[in-house]
Design goal:
Number of strands: 5
Order of helices and strands: EHEHHEHHHHEHEHHHHH
Radius of gyration: 21 Å
Bound molecules: adenosine-5'-tetraphosphate
Length: 335
């Protein structure tokens, strides 16, 4: 078997629930491009997952195009990886139902994301929000992915995917690999600029809480200038007592490679204004070339559609085989 055949398979997704933030870039997208040489990668824009929270249809469509353009701009190569939109591959929802029927109510009730999102959207605690982990398990298992890059917030869902896969394998016969989490080197969790105790999120209603990957330089500089910090005036890494400054230091570290003590020395005796301006500069310099590419893709819908059609076909070829295998195993009559 060639080394190509032995590459492990990775599946990762991102929701088009808004424009991508600097948090999405640092925590996910930036790593995705880097994984392509080493792994057999499938990257999906998880539009079905986005529906668990109420979306404006026209915006969801626009954000989906933006998402695909941004992933291409950030270096996802559709010749090397399979890039697709989740709803374009019906096998995800087909397997989802089978897995839903193999997930226990108690298991789903224990998911902390369900509890959190029910609290943040009390007017729309829908069934999709509750069964979201079964769809996530289907996303992974339909490709028999070996590895899933996940943040801390998703480890519980991945564990459930393993539990369901294991249950299915025992009940019927070995079918699914048990997927493992893949922790990337730089797993920084980027916090909101308006409230550094909260994760930076693309669906945050406060536009000053996040920097978007397609924000222009002036906007980026202004948002960092307004970032909530503390009154001490010393650039010092202390997540507990100086969450805002520590968050900015993590961002500065990602783009400069400087460690925390180097950053402290660089800004020793200088105020927060200087530091915030420097963070804004390195972020906008890093995003500028990606933004150039992004605009190019956004203006070429024909190319985007071609990429997505090809991605959906390649993904379906793998996923459809798994669905028919599963359908057969559970006893669905096939002609
Ligand atoms: N603040 C963050 N820091 C580091 N990583 C982050 N990710 C998201 N926010 C941060 C990572 O981005 C990937 C895609 O996430 P998602 O779109 O599937 O959903 P999410 O984690 O819920 O992202 P958002 O931006 O917070 O979306 P909304 O506002 O819609 O809920 C994941 O790998 C995630 O870890």
């Amino acid at each position: 078997m060639s080394s190509e055949d032995m590459k492990k398979r990775i599946l990762s997704g991102i929701q088009p629930s808004g424009s991508f933030t600097l948090g999405n870039y640092i925590g996910a997208i930036r790593n995705w491009a880097a994984l392509q040489d080493q792994f057999d990668c499938l990257y999906m824009v998880a539009d079905l997952h986005a529906l668990t929270v109420r979306q404006v249809p026209a915006q969801l469509r626009a954000h989906t195009c933006e998402a695909v353009s941004m992933l291409l701009a950030a270096g996802i190569d559709p010749k090397q990886s399979i890039l697709f939109v989740q709803s374009h591959v019906p096998a995800h929802t087909q397997l989802n139902w089978i897995l839903c029927c193999n997930c226990q109510f108690g298991e789903l009730s224990r998911m902390t994301q369900f509890k959190d999102k029910s609290l943040s959207h009390p007017d729309n605690v829908n069934g999709g929000l509750f069964t979201y982990p079964a769809l996530m398990a289907a996303d992974i298992l339909v490709y028999n992915a070996d590895l899933v890059p996940v943040g801390q917030d998703q480890t519980q869902h991945l564990e459930l995917a393993r539990t369901v896969a294991n249950r299915f394998n025992n009940l019927y016969s070995p079918t699914f690999h048990l997927p493992e989490g893949y922790i990337t080197k730089e797993g920084a969790k980027i916090m909101s600029l308006a409230d550094p105790s909260k994760k930076m999120s693309k669906s945050d209603p406060n536009v000053n809480s996040f920097v978007l990957m397609n924000d222009d330089k002036d906007t980026i500089i202004r948002k960092f200038k307004r970032a909530v910090t503390d009154s001490e005036g010393t650039v010092r890494y202390d997540v507990e007592n100086k969450a805002g400054i520590s968050n900015l230091m993590s961002i500065y570290h990602v783009f400069t490679g400087k460690d925390m003590s180097e950053i402290e020395n660089e800004f020793s005796g200088r105020g927060y204004a200087d530091f915030k301006a420097a963070v804004g500069e390195v972020v906008s310099d890093a995003l500028a070339p990606i933004q150039g590419e992004y605009t190019k893709y956004m203006n070429d819908k024909a190319y985007l559609n071609e990429v997505l059609k090809d991605g959906a076909e390649k993904a379906s070829r793998i996923a459809d085989r798994m669905v028919s295998k599963v359908y057969k195993k559970v006893g669905l009559y096939q002609m």
